[in-house]
Design goal:
This protein has about 160 residues and is mostly helical. The chain contains five helices and no strands.
Length: about 160
């Protein structure tokens, strides 16, 4: 890969980094390690939540694991997006970009496939969070307490 020099005849630091990463296949290795880390962290979090293993830190540990998994997945998505943009730009530079209609159709259908999934996931998470919050609200707690006292009164009255 030849890197074009800038105005002063030097090569930018970013271009040098890209050249080094390409030679060492760093992006593939980083993507592999991010994938492995995401799977391990995800399985650990799943095991801690479902098996109800007593852990130090309690909820803080689980929140930290979930955050670490999210960071790994976002970094992996960034690498994939960077790679996709790079392939598209190389294709256009090499003159094979004549199939622009095909590229646009693939892009639009990809967005149409991914967008509903993301929207459903966001709304499902929000709905679940708000639903659980409503179960433990003050009004529900007050109603449950009143029902218990009413049942106890009826029970003592029936005897």
């Amino acid at each position: 890969m030849d890197m074009p020099p800038d105005d002063q005849g030097t090569i930018s630091l970013w271009a040098q980094f890209r050249e080094w990463a390409h030679r060492k296949k760093a992006f593939k290795k980083i993507a592999l390690w991010l994938t492995i880390a995401s799977v391990i962290i995800g399985l650990t979090t799943f095991a801690l939540i479902t098996l109800r293993v007593p852990i130090m830190g309690g909820d803080t540990t689980i929140k930290t694991l979930l955050t670490m998994c999210l960071i790994c997945l976002v970094a992996l998505a960034g690498l994939i997006f960077y790679r996709l943009i790079r392939v598209i730009m190389l294709t256009r530079r090499q003159g094979r970009g004549k199939s622009a209609l095909h590229l646009r159709m693939v892009s639009v259908f990809s967005l149409l496939a991914v967008a509903p999934t993301v929207v459903v996931a966001l709304f499902a998470g929000l709905f679940f969070y708000l639903g659980v919050q409503s179960w433990f609200s003050d009004r529900v707690q007050k109603v449950v307490t009143c029902l218990i006292s009413l049942l106890m009164r009826n029970l003592t009255h029936a005897r």
